[in-house]
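=== Discrete structure encoding ===
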Amino acid sequence: MKDVARTVDIRPVASKRDVKPFWRAALVAQGDDPAYAPPLLKETYDVLTPGCTPFARENDGQAWVAFRDGRPVGRIYAVKNNAHLKKYDDATGQFGFLEAIDDDVVWDALFATASDFARARGLSRLAGPFSASINHECGLLVEGYGVPSTTHTNYAPPYYARQLQRLGFIPVKDIVGYEGRLADSRLPERVAAIRGKWSGSADLTLRRAQGPTAVAELNDVYNDAWSVNWGSSPVSQEEARFLAELAQQILPPDWTTLADWKGEPIGVLCMAPDLNEAVRDLGGKLLPFGWAKLIWRLKVTGVSRARVPIIGVRRAWRGTRVGAMAAAALLADAVEKASKAGCERLEVSWMLEDNRSVLNLVRSMPATRSKVWRIFEKTL
């Protein structure tokens, strides 16, 4: 679909009315791929309306849509992420929400615009995709094409990576997803047997994250557990509350779990039903009947797959018996809950390619590598 003679008009997302073309650009680029789940228009409004999220208010970001003959054919978002820059001081801007048809002119125009935005703010590199940060949807799919995407993971056809490399972006880090059949898992029984022989078992407890302090506890454990991971940046309390409110719309109340050691939270796991499975045929719209179908599928018929996007333990407990048991107990608990909900498969993603302890635990579920997402960067 390459036509270098046709011009592209890049327009900023400056108000709520500009969000719908931004949303539609994704459908134009990928809507014919059966493995792709169109993003919900409502959620796109919730996240991309200028200034509406804590992340947008805390950072300097801008979204754009590429138009040709009045039709949206691509989109991109660029941000000066203040938390990242405060931690790393690496003069790196970030891009995300990347979607476009396979046309060199469209890709050139989108990245010229994002690069100019970064340079104007004194930044000398561009990295991504981060939609909108490493704490949200991140990475470009480079392995697992044709496998249906799960809730809040990025899907992309092979030409996305080719276009980034054509533009001079180089790979810097891979993050992986593993998936397994729940009927094959004996992890809950194995973990129970090990805990039965462990003298510290009574001091390790799991509890549902609920109540007025739950978001603060979750965010505190998350920020500490991920603080030494590659590329990590902290989540503010305001953003954590916003994300929790979004998640409450689809998460069963007992699928977010804290692990306590002697009454102190040291580990966290969040699991979600595969929203993409429930909305894939809705075309991204919940009105007029999409809401009813979504609630029926999530609450009554259920979905066949669940995803664990977050599992971790505090830094102080990494490499210890207590930390290992906390992570194993959390994952075993997730396997049980997903099985009881009627799910057939469980995906754990994203995990850094070199996070051996978590990868070994997930492999023991058992699960095998099903997808790889890649972070790219370029010097401007």
